[in-house]
Amino acid sequence: MDKLLNHPTSLKVLAVMIAILIWAVVHIDPETSPQSVTSNTDTKVIEAASIVVEGLDTDKYMLTAMEPTVARLVVEGRISSLLAANNDDYVVKLDLTGVESGIQAAAKGRAAFRNSRN
User: Fold this and answer.
1) Is the pTM for the entire model greater than 0.85?
2) Non-local CB neighbours of 41 within 8 Å, separated by 6+ positions
């Protein structure tokens, strides 16, 4: 054992192994994943965003019922923008342009956010 520790190459290998062990102890935090990065984006859930109908030809058609009348939105964006907007700023617009008479089902889609303050 003394002969092994006195050899320069074995001391270099041992030093590298200790350095790697110290680096791992310092840099690996078991509470957070290594991919976690501080971000300025967040997610906000709007439980009851109103649905506004657009594009309905009221001369030919009449909307008799719409179920549901509110939508649940999950919005992702900059934290400052999410905090600046009220829940009333989020509106889902349902475009009924070109819809024929009868019972229609609207597909799920994406809603755009427009900040009315700017």
Assistant:
1) no
2) 76, 77, 78, 79
For the record, the structure tokens of 37 come out as 């990065």
Average pLDDT over residues 43-51: 86
| Nearest-angstrom CA–CA distance, 53 and 50 | 10
Task: Say which residue the tokens 């967040």 belong to.
Answer: 42
Closest-CA residue to 92 (of 76, 75, 105)? 75
Write out the two tokens for 41: 């984006």
Biggest CA pair distance of the chain? 100
Cα 41 from Cα 81, distance rounded (Å): 9
Element of type H or E holding 9: helix 8-27
Cβ neighbourhood burial of 77 (10 Å; 0-12, 13-18, 19+): middle
% of the chain at pLDDT higher than 90: 9
What does DSSP say about strands 91-95 and 41-54: parallel, antiparallel, or unpaired? Answer: parallel
**Residue 33 burial (CB count, 10 A):** 7
